[in-house]
Amino acid sequence: xxxRRVRDNRGADPGKTLERYxxxxxxxxxxxxxxxxxxxxxxIHGEDxxxxxxxxxxxxxxTAAIVAEQFARRDFTVPSRTATQGLxxxxxxxxxxxxxxxxxxxxTLSLLMAMAGRSSHLDDLCGEGVARLGATTNHR
Length: 140
Hints:
- β1 (88-91) and β2 (97-98) form a beta hairpin.
- α4 (61-73) runs parallel beside α6.
- It contains 7 helices and 3 strands.
- The model has no long low-confidence stretch (mean pLDDT 89).
- It folds into 2 domains: 1-30, no CATH class; 32-134, Nonspecific Lipid-transfer Protein, Chain A, CATH 3.30.1050.
- The chain is mainly alpha-helical.
- The chain has a 3-stranded mixed β-sheet, covered by helices on one side.
């Protein structure tokens, strides 16, 4: 997605490219205009940083569930819906449940991170569906 956006906004020369980026630097819109998309950016990328540093996550299960519900419904910036088709995802710490098929269960945040392609959270999950979900992650 980043490469596509750079390609879409590249100017005829470096000066024009810089001018285009300066024109949009103050924007305050989410990629889709949906608030859950902003929330997803904060939760997922914040967790990427925290997890790698060994810091605990302040994300509440109910917060992660808001994003997980949307990721289960659509492919957004990652193929989350495609990756979870034919699987049942069930959170053990919130009301989040999605799909039918072999189950992957565990903390809501770990399910969301796996849906976002992060294999680092697969060890937090259990069930027959975990291996298939793991096959779709990008090994981050």
